[in-house]
Automatic annotation (TrEMBL):
Its EC number is 6.3.4.13. Belongs to the GARS family. The gene is purD. Residues 210-232 are annotated as: Disordered. It catalyses: 5-phospho-beta-D-ribosylamine + glycine + ATP = N(1)-(5-phospho-beta-D-ribosyl)glycinamide + ADP + phosphate + H(+). The keyword Magnesium does not apply. Keywords: ATP-binding, Ligase, Nucleotide-binding, Purine biosynthesis. SMART domains: GARS_A, GARS_C. It holds the Pfam family GARS_N. It comes from Blautia intestinihominis. This is Phosphoribosylamine--glycine ligase. PROSITE patterns: ATP_GRASP, GARS.
Amino acid sequence: MKVLIVGSGGREHAIAWSVAKSPKVDKIYCAPGNAGISEYAECVDIGAMEFEKLADFAEKNSVDLTIIGMDDPLVGGVVDVFETRGLKVFGPRKNAAILEGSKAFSKDLMKKYGIPTAGYENFDDPQKALDYLHTQVKFPIVLKADGLALGKGVLICNTLEEAEAGVKEIMEDKKFGSAGNTMVIEEFMTGREVSVLSFVDGKTIRPMTSAQDHKRAKDGDQGLNTGGMGTFSPSPFYTEEVDKFCKEHIYQATVDAMAAEGRPFTGIIFFGLMLTADGPKVLEYNARFGDPEAQVVLPRMKTDIIEVMEACVNGTLDQVDLEFEDNAAVCVVLASDGYPVKYEKGIPMHGFENFKDKEGYYCFHAGTKFKDGEIVTNGGRVLGITATGKDLKEARKNAYEATDWIQFANKYMRHDIGKAIDEA
């Protein structure tokens, strides 16, 4: 098979690594890719939002399967473009990717079908949002930009004054662009956060192993929201009892709800869950692999990823058993100092040879590129240093040891990824 992967981040590197292991595949392309992905794939200079050019490339090069890694092209309708041209593609159509593309849509869907989530209201008028806030007595309260905002469009407001400033920021100042034309105001839930990625073929769902992300930029969950500073898998808080509840009341219920709405979902549904005192509730949906969740989940997956993705596209997922290693993985993101606000690019990096032939250690590239024959930084989140171990504590120890193997001038990371493991 020939496979095309669309995207350029750490998630796409993890997908490329996983695809390269499949005996079914002998050629991988990635558009646009990055320095690390080029180890497995031929990188093609086409942007993720250039749908017709991507489809032309797939057609011309007889690509057997295209995998869409990123949210923007999915929400924009890249899958529809490929399907119209008879090309096999893994990911949801535009009318299903709205599950991530509009938080207002997903909240209304959960309310309609009785899927557990936080209480909320949707607003497209800032004055009405402010009026509603003045009726609220419980703080903190959560403000969410409706559309895509690189994982950063959520504000947790501790006071009425903070919430008023948040409405201005999202709806009037357009901090997140048009994503803030509509806004969700949601009750603040407390508990453990857990992420569960799952394969879906429109009717059947196969959940993967659990993971937990760390969104805040600084240790102790301080600082600004980011795309994710590190992850671990599995979550010790995701028990068999929680899994049973979610399978019955959340996972299959979501797939059935989307089908009932005439929006059958094929691809990946990412369930962001909060394990509250009243049971698990949905924080958010995403319509693709999480980043950096993919970097800890895929190295633990035993089943051939191509076999599973083909089953999703063909509607035969019920015939696939999804298996994972009985181990653990931790990913620590190496970022450029100053992320997620302002940071330098183009800084040379060294030490990649330390990962060669090291079983259980992975260096997934996110913001990197080649310049004058060497690898340099090209983004805020630069690398995802991932390691496995027999349990979470060993995996965490291994991952942090491996962060010393890579050197670059403005390297920044959190030092408490997976610290929750010690409290489990």
